[in-house]
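quick one before i forget lol
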Amino acid sequence: MKWLALFACAGILLAQENKPTPAEQEQQELSRAVSEAGSSSVDFVRALERHLKKYPASPQRLAIEKAIAKSALDANDRPRILLYGQKVLAAEPETSDLPLLDRVIRVLLDADDQESAKKALALCARYLRQVEAMRNDSGKSHMSEAQWAEEVSKGRARALALQARATGNTGDAEGALRIAKSSWESNQNAESAREVSRWLLKLNRNAEALEYLADAFAIEDGRATDADRARDRQRMGEIYAKLNGSEKGLGDLILAAYDRMSAAHTERLAKLRQADPNIVATELMDFTLLPVEKRDPLPLSSLNGKTVVMDFWATWCGPCRVQHPIIEKVKKRYENDSKVVFLSVNADEDRSLVAGFLKELQWTGPNYYESGLARLLTVSSIPTLLVVGRDGKVSSRMAGFIPERFEDMLVERIEETRTN
């Protein structure tokens, strides 16, 4: 009996030693709950909410609320977007999560009351600050300066359109119109035109409102839905009939808006092409690569009919350093063949790191920035090596790096393009 008692005491002590801490216990429960939710977003959110109810002071509370807010965005769960989105934005006043900021503001504005409008106004000011802060970040993206500037102007237009709505919802229609026109001037899009029209109507300037609504209907805008256009059409009919007694002649007004917006679009594209030839490029050989060193840009169309080997690399990529000398070895093998071209394509988000890296490792040129090409070709991992055939199409893709076989594999793929 004495030994049994001793074993029992030892078992109790062992159990106490192995007992998880409160933090470990919570983590285990959270992991189990998420696992049991499976792929169901509804069950996932419910599991997280139950966890927060049980552990209101959880050190992981913000991360959990972020996860719920993200799921709410994906599911367009408006009550949860508002509830958890506001919590996350309050906890992280400098967050750069613009999609969350945008959606929270829109849900607030849909309430169409003074209190919600005031909350939305404060968030709109924050939205604008964060969009403006992005202006000098083009070097941290895979976009050219012109592409980045275009994205910033679109973001600014969206933020101003929301600010106009919030301002108007507080009772200041004149202020709302002024801000809405600033949105339109920043980037001509359907939402901005619609917002200008809204506040012109509030001010009984119906004829002007009708023109902006026609612009919203006619403009080329991928963010405008069929439902948006249907509402614009119905509203135009109502306003035009009120002004003219019937809809007769409305078609001419819409056609004039189409011509006006088409001309504005053509002019804008021409300006963008001057700043960046890749702004509207949709095919591989339409791209022009911008040089790292002081040399002319390279239009890929100039390489038509040749085999092109594109090495996508980055300064932070360890395997790229090992792979580079092997590529140089293969490149030397084809140095007298004008029909085979090797391109070194940098994929760093922060371009300021590139020149120093090349100098340190003594990598010879020519080197080019990817200039948006990685996005077009879906280069999602580094290193990636693409072999483009004489027809201008990607013939082979080598993602990752196999040192012992890399040279032979690359030569094989080059030779395939020369015989096909």
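fyi The chain has two domains: 25-134+149-270, 284-419.
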